[in-house]
From TrEMBL:
Binds 1 zinc ion per subunit. Keywords: Lyase, Metal-binding, Zinc. Its cofactor is Zn(2+). One of its GO terms (biological process) is carbon utilization. GO terms for molecular function: carbonate dehydratase activity; zinc ion binding. It comes from Senegalimassilia anaerobia. This is carbonic anhydrase. InterPro entries: Carbonic_anhydrase, Carbonic_anhydrase_CS, Carbonic_anhydrase_sf. It catalyses: hydrogencarbonate + H(+) = CO2 + H2O. SMART domains: Pro_CA. Zn(2+) binds at residues 56, 58, 109, 112. Catalyzes the reversible hydration of carbon dioxide to form bicarbonate. It holds the Pfam family Pro_CA.
Length: 192
């Protein structure tokens, strides 16, 4: 991966994610570059991801694999239910400001256990912090698919609202979008 990654526009980064997901749909093995040469290159020259992906911690949702990405291509933040708090916001801000990423994708998925827990179970312990956030996002929604989409939209709004209007946004084309990963088929639906 070259330093060109961080210079992609949001539209170019989104197209690269789409192409990577298309390759993944027909793959039987992970396709990203994890070679020793790339490990050494990113060690010496640093990381230059082309997109930020906020995804659920679900073990079936692996953004680097889903988008056929290798070392240094994606800046991935994973948290159950793809919820957003100050830790995730700080990570996103870092990747935007210091790594030059122009695209943030909130990647939810079908069959999300955190959404199910918020809809159907009495949460316990610190899990309640996550399910309360999701419950706020989905309101009285009873359809799980619609609830997953509402939860993604809520996280997108939280990210957008948290960011101060930056003078360079118009120039660089910074974008925050939602996406839904179909756990059964592997397809990603971008919610533009």
């Amino acid at each position: 991966m070259s330093h060109e990654s961080c210079n992609l526009t949001a539209d170019e980064a989104l197209e690269r994610l789409r192409e990577g997901n298309a390759r993944y749909l027909n793959a039987s093995h992970a396709q990203g570059d994890v070679s020793p040469q790339l490990r050494q290159s990113t060690f010496r020259e640093g990381q230059h991801p082309y997109a930020i992906v906020l995804a659920c911690s679900d073990s079936r949702v692996i953004p680097e694999v889903i988008f056929s990405a290798g070392i240094g291509e994606l800046f991935v933040i994973r948290v159950a239910g793809n919820v957003v708090d100050r830790h995730q916001l700080g990570s996103i801000e870092y990747a935007e400001d210091h790594l030059g990423c122009n695209l943030v994708v909130v990647l939810g998925h079908t069959g999300c256990g955190a959404v199910d827990a918020a809809m159907h179970h009495e949460p316990y312990g610190t899990v309640k912090f996550i399910t309360d956030e999701i419950a706020d996002a989905i309101g009285n929604e009873t359809d799980e698919a619609a609830a997953c989409l509402a939860n993604v939209a809520h996280s997108v709004r939280r990210i957008e609202e948290s960011r101060k209007v930056r003078t360079d946004e118009a120039e660089h084309g910074l974008r925050v979008i939602g996406a839904l990963y179909q756990t059964d088929t592997g397809e990603v639906q971008f919610l533009e």
